[in-house]
Design the sequence.
């Protein structure tokens, strides 16, 4: 039987599908995606072993999940930071909002194809909206205008700066001879060397546009979002760069909404199907009702009052589960917390509500028994009470007890007014005189009735005088 689908469930599936597809698009050519696929496979194995009753395997996988989560954060912190930056709503506000390239794209494109004609290798990075500093190493600062002559002289064979990438930021050449991160994509053809892998590696980690000139083949390629595309002419390269640099990512120049929905339709459909299957697994046990006993705990009782009675020490909860992945709580896992801050002297009727229980996510309360609680509150009274030594028996032989002295003679006791009004004396623990053969001073605890307690120490000294 399929669970009832609410509008919240449809929205849940859509949101997770969009997020999952975005992560796939960002990291589909990186090791991060391969690791996520491997972890997803382990998750499927865990669910299968758990439902089939393989206790040892499911227990080991469950214990490993915490360690794996920490390792993911440590190993892929750069990818996680990049993903958070891309989904940040402040990106458009604080990001670079250039109106367009501030250098001559036609001259730039002609220079690039001149390098290709002379079989001079080159790699030029055009930064867009995302910062690149964390991916760049080494490099020589230049901060100069973009000109064809300068680019040609930098990549000329024998130049001190020809080995590495040229970084163009805000229409100026910022650095030369920079080292870029290499792509780990195993599907890159063997004919592409280190220069192409470096360009693809940076485009996988950012939205930069990377122009690559092949030294061996004299070809010009454009790396963008982990994809490498050949460019046939300077005019085509100029138009493509103008489109990329004139409009920040996410603005009105992007394709229409309908076109974006149906582009790359197969991966998107696969994502929706996968998320829907996961949703079905998560809601497998939706509607299951369980009964759990919750002990009652009181808090915030005013200092001037004492709790003298309660109609119940536990309440029974009927809980409804919305997922087969949620562990059903055991007795003692859930506590009924009752706030006594507003009680008055005498009997108080307090009604239980959902706010009294701290439930795990995915569980809701359907019934509480009993629905209310009666607590009796009395005013706290403190007064001095006389202490009497509780002695029994008699000394051995001709010895006799001459005197019993309690130090101190009175102690301060506090408790409910109804009990304190009847309390005149407090006795000590029992003392057997048959074991006493000489005068002695003993330290004894007070035998205090229930609901009463000493204001300070609960011990007194009892001095026994034994004579012949």
Sequence:
């Amino acid at each position: 039987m399929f669970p009832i689908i609410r509008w919240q469930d449809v929205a849940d599936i859509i949101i997770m599908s969009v997020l999952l597809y975005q992560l796939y698009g960002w990291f589909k050519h990186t090791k991060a995606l391969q690791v996520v696929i491997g972890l997803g496979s382990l998750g499927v194995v865990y669910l299968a072993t758990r439902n089939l009753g393989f206790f040892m395997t499911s227990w080991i996988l469950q214990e490993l999940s915490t360690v794996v989560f920490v390792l993911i954060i440590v190993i892929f912190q750069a990818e996680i930071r990049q993903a958070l930056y891309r989904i940040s709503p402040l990106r458009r506000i604080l990001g670079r909002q250039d109106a367009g390239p501030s250098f001559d794209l036609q001259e730039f494109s002609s220079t690039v194809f001149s390098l290709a004609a002379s079989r001079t290798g080159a790699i030029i990075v055009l930064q867009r909206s995302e910062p690149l500093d964390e991916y760049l190493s080494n490099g020589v600062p230049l901060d100069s205008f973009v000109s064809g002559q300068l680019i040609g002289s930098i990549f000329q064979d024998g130049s001190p700066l020809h080995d590495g990438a040229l970084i163009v930021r805000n229409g100026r050449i910022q650095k030369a001879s920079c080292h870029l991160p290499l792509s780990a994509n195993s599907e890159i053809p063997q004919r592409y060397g280190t220069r192409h892998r470096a360009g693809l590696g940076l485009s996988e980690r950012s939205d930069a546009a990377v122009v690559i000139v092949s030294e061996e083949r004299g070809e010009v390629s454009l790396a963008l979002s982990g994809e490498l595309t050949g460019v046939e002419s300077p005019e085509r390269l100029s138009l493509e760069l103008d489109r990329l640099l004139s409009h920040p990512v996410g603005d009105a120049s992007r394709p229409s909404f309908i076109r974006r929905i149906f582009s790359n339709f197969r991966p998107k459909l696969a994502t929706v199907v996968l998320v829907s299957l996961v949703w079905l697994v998560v809601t497998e046990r939706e509607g299951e009702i369980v009964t759990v006993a919750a002990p009652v705990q009181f808090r915030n009782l005013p200092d001037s009052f004492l709790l003298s009675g309660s109609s119940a020490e536990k309440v029974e909860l009927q809980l409804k589960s919305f997922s087969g992945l949620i562990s059903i709580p055991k007795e003692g896992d859930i506590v009924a917390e009752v706030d006594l801050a507003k009680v008055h002297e005498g009997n108080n009727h307090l009604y239980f509500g959902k706010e009294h229980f701290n439930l795990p996510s995915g569980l809701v309360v359907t019934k509480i028994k009993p629905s209310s609680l009666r607590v009796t509150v009395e005013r706290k009274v403190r007064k001095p009470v006389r202490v009497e030594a509780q002695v029994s028996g008699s000394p051995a032989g001709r010895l006799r007890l001459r005197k019993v002295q309690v130090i101190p003679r009175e102690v301060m006791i506090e408790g409910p007014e109804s009990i304190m009004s009847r309390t005149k004396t407090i006795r000590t623990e029992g003392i057997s005189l048959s074991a006493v053969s000489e005068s002695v001073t003993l330290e004894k605890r007070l035998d205090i009735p229930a609901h009463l307690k000493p204001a300070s120490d609960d011990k007194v000294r009892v001095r026994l005088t034994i004579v012949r």
